[in-house]
Amino acid sequence: MSVIIAILVLGFLIFVHELGHFMVAKWVGIHVFEFSLGFGPQLLGYQKNKESTKYALRILPLGGFVRMAGMDADETEEGVDPAANFNDKPLKSRFAVISAGSVMNFLAAVLLFIITFSAIGVPAASETNVIGEVLADSPAVTAGLQSGDRIVSINETSTPTWTTVAESIQESGENNIHVVVERGEERLDFTVTPHYEPDAKAYQIGVAQQLLWEKQGLFAAIKLGLIQSFQLSKLVLDGFVAMIAGQLSADDVAGPVGITVAIGNAAAGGAGSLMIFTALLAINLALLNLLPIPALDGSKLVFLLIEGVRGRPVAPEKEGFVNLIGFAMLMLVFILVTYNDIARIITGG
């Protein structure tokens, strides 16, 4: 089920991205040969006539493309008006077409936040003593604690709030603790051994508090959606900078397998969690595509900026060579992060 949800989420983000390119291309008068989701052999396709745009769904759900007339030297077709070629359009029109994919992804993130905050709510940590989530491979799982358990006491001390739960665990250090919970009509006893978590600088047993969703009015949701989108954009950019500076390793980067697992985890938290995570992925996709990496939209924008400064475009063979090298590097990174994803799953990391 997680794989199906992941395909739907990623397919939605790819569709939105390519729709941005497609809509602006049509708007500025560029002829579009094909609008495709996925790569490889075609599964489904529709084309009204030979002169119209072909819409296709392909077998590999790893991206998509909008094939436009005149974007490459050999992308010409009989019957297409030369004025409808990409490379014959003004610089500002071509810049708008290339940047439109990322703009659409960002707007999709804003819209997802607004819908979530107004229809479902803003997630806020609850102070109740009810376990919202039990983390995998944690002492709590080993002991038998479950999501929904109400922690009544720890070491004979009453724990009416989540703060008292956290304080009681912290005070115990690495010593075994006696936990009493209410599960439905039952009252159960467990012995749990906390472990020290260096990142949090605290002793933990692997439980998280409940999230309460507080619905917002439309105007408040719009404001919060914009704020959240820009704040997350800053965090994503900070992550890119840290990666370039060598402060993040390849082990900290998730590939398709890791993203699929993360989407599944988000879906397990409900519709609100899934929509918020989808918005985060949309922002990641928007900013990633704007990086000046060959074969990405950001690289094409750099070539257009160079053309604007020089007054003439970069030679197609040179641009093609740079994009070919960049694509090869992206494939190597893709293989590396996928390997790391699988290794993390196998080792429980």
Please tell me about this protein's structure.
This protein is of the alpha+beta class and about 350 residues long. Among the domains are: about 1-30 and about 90-120 and about 265-345, no CATH class; about 125-210, Pdz3 Domain. Helix content is about 50%, strand content about 20%. It is built from 9 helices and 12 strands. The chain has helices at about 1-25, 90-120, 140-145, 160-170, 220-245, 255-270, 270-290, 295-310, 315-345; strands at about 30-45, 55-70, 120-125, 130-135, 150-155, 155-160, 175-185, 185-190, 195, 200-205, 205-210, 210-215. It has a 4-stranded antiparallel beta sheet with strand order 6-5-7-8. Strand 1 and strand 2 (about 55-70) form a beta hairpin. Helix 2 runs antiparallel to helix 7 (about 270-290). The two termini are about 20 Å apart.
Distance between the termini: 22 Å
What's the count of strands? 12
Biggest sheet, strands in spatial order? 6-5-7-8
Count helical runs.
9
Mean pLDDT: 83
Beta-strand percentage range: 15-25%
The biggest sheet amounts to: 4 strands, antiparallel
What would you call the shape? elongated
Q: Helical content, roughly?
A: 40-55%
Unreliable stretches covering 5 or more consecutive residues: none
C-alpha-based Rg, rounded? 25 Å
Q: Which structural category fits the helices and strands?
A: alpha+beta
Q: How do the SSEs run, as a string of H and E?
A: HEEHEEHEEHEEEEEEHHHHH
